[in-house]
Amino acid sequence: MPHIIVKLALGRSEQHKQQLAESVTQAVMTSLGVGEDAVSVSLEEIAPSEWTEKVYTPDIINSPGKLYKRPGYKPF
């Protein structure tokens, strides 16, 4: 029963967020061999001015053991 949390910068439309949730759900179903009813997805929108403090430092720099794909950008 995976629950996926996606953190993203503010500004995406509801249609884009719904498409993202559907794509993530399909990827999880395929990768883990679970049904759609087992997957939940939430989106956390973060202001770009808060990205370093709320995402980059705690989730990327300070949690390397949990990070499976590093970003190619530097913090803001």
TrEMBL record:
InterPro entries given in the database record: 4-OT-like_dom, Tautomerase/MIF_sf, Tautomerase_PptA
4-oxalocrotonate tautomerase-like domain mapped to chain residues: 2-51
Keywords of the record: Isomerase
UniProt name for this protein: 4-oxalocrotonate tautomerase-like domain-containing protein
Organism the protein comes from: Labrys miyagiensis
